[in-house]
């Protein structure tokens, strides 16, 4: 199998930190304090607009589309979260008239990531201030109430991700752990701590499956790992086990992982590699394909699977300011 570069887009004047795709729209986050919006549904992806009205004073670190809506959240190093939206129209893939709906304050330091729950009811954010905040959003995306501040990580929290169909949240941290959170008795509690990485955990992503509950993660220790849920005890605590350490292909920190709906895991990081892994019938994982220098000599900060029509695509963002779109065969 091979990975093929379909398109190479110079979108930003500084590093691209994150990408997020939804229903044919892609948003990008960059150190240049701009958000770019692209239409992915054509043969070639093309820019439809940018969000930049000096809302943020520092790098935009993360972007996340609210499920089944045209509302976008963006987290910044200026410690705030901006919420953008527009009315849904037939030409929403071309119309870039987004407006600022809300500016959320609360974190004491840089916001490192934002993520929406599968039902769009909750927005999670995490920060250098070692905390994870859960916000309840109104339907219009204009009012946000903080319903829980989770402070059990001992260091900078790098990433948050929700399970695709249940209200289970994973947070990844500079303290080398992943914590899993869920609502118990009207409050959000840590129900599991995943230990094993020997360095900062940069990112995690849940498997898109209803038959099993698994999570992949990546770290400064250059590994990609898969964790599996086993059971829950009477107190609501969850037992997870390390199921696999994927083949050790990366030579340096792995910054981003993404688990596709077809069961493939993609990873990328500071060594510039883009790697695809496939699970074998015996439960072991193999390298399906790899692409060296996915962004030339630059580090690659983000990878995400997205489906456009019947086609599964990969999108990456790097320190070179480019967003690259990939296919595989």
UniProtKB/TrEMBL annotation:
The superkingdom listed in its UniProt entry is Eukaryota
User: What is one process in the GO biological process aspect for this record?
Assistant: iron-sulfur cluster assembly
**Keyword RNA-binding in record:** no
Q: Which PROSITE patterns match?
A: WD_REPEATS_2, WD_REPEATS_REGION
Q: Which CDD domains match?
A: WD40
The principal location of this protein is cytoplasm
- SMART domains recorded: WD40
Per UniProt, the keywords (alphabetical) are:
Cytoplasm, Nucleus, Repeat, WD repeat
- InterPro entries with a match to the protein in the record: CIAO1/Cia1, WD40/YVTN_repeat-like_dom_sf, WD40_PAC1, WD40_repeat_dom_sf, WD40_rpt
Its biological purpose is as follows: Essential component of the cytosolic iron-sulfur (Fe/S) protein assembly machinery. Required for the maturation of extramitochondrial Fe/S proteins.
| Assembly notes | Interacts with NAR1.
Similarity comment: Belongs to the WD repeat CIA1 family.
Q: What is this protein called?
A: Probable cytosolic iron-sulfur protein assembly protein 1
From which lineage does this chain's organism come? Eukaryota, Fungi, Dikarya, Ascomycota, Saccharomycotina
